[in-house]
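User: Predict the structure for this protein chain, please.
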Amino acid sequence: MDQVYATGAEIDGPAGLAFDQNGNLYVVDHANNRVRKIDTSGVITTVVGSGGPVGMNRGSYAGDGEQAIRARLQKPIGLVIAPDHTFYIADRDNDRIRKLGENGVITTLAGNGARGFSGDVGPTRRAALDEPETMVIDKRGNLYVSVDGSQRVRKIDADGVIRTVAGDGAPDSTGDGGPATQASLHTYGLALDKQENLYVSELEGCRVSRIDRGGVITTVAGTGVCEFSGDDGPAVKAGPAGPSGLAIDRNGNLYVADGTRVRKIGRNGMITTVAGERA
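Assistant: Here is the predicted structure, written as C-alpha cells:
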C-alpha cells in the first residue's frame, strides 16, 4: 500500500537502505520487488518497480528506458545513492545493476542477464553478473559490487569498464597477504574507509578482510571458525559467527553485523560487542 504512513505499510523482507541528501529514506522491498521511499513526514511511496511476488520466474526483467515505476525487478537487495542523486540497485535475480537518474528513467548499468562470470576489463553491460548483492561507491563514482554467485567483488569504473578487484571464484577463504584477485572468498558486505581501503565480509567464511589500494588482501577479523568468541581481544583471533553488513564511522572504526550482535573493530585492532548480548 502506497501513499500512507510507513508504519501502516506492508514491507516484505526489507534489504538495502539509503538516505538521500534531503533526509528521505529509501528501502529495498525485497520480496515485493520494489524500492520504496519514506519521506521526512513518514509517508511511503514506491519509486522503482511494478511489483509482483518473489515467486515470479527468474529473469523477470523489463522496463529499461521507461519510468522506473514500470520496471520489473527480481529479488533486489543492495541500494546505493550517489552524491549526484543517481540510484544504483542490485537487481539480484535479474543478474544486473540498474541505474535510476533524477529524470525517473531506469536503465541497466551492468550485467547482460546471464549467469556465471565473464566480461572483465570490458563494457559493463556485456559482463555476466551472477547474483549481485551489496554495493558501495567511492568519491570518484566507482561502484564496487559483491557478486554472490561468482564469489567476487567487481568494480564498475566511472568510465564504464568492469573489472574484478577481489576473489578468484572459489568459495573458500584463502590468499591472505597476497593479491586480492587471487584470493578465495565468500563475499558479502562491503565498506570503504577514508583512505579507500575496501572491506569485505565473508558471511560463510566468517572473516572480514581489508583490500588496500595496492590490491593486497589482509584479514582484519576472524579465524575462519564460525562461532562467537574473542570479545575485548584482537579481532584477528576472534570468531565472528556470520559477519554480514559493514559500516565505518568518521574515526575509522569498523562495525560488523554479526548474527545477533553488532561488533566494533577499533583502529587498534581490538574487537568488542556494542549491541546484542555479549555471551
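The first strand starts at residue 4 and ends at 5.
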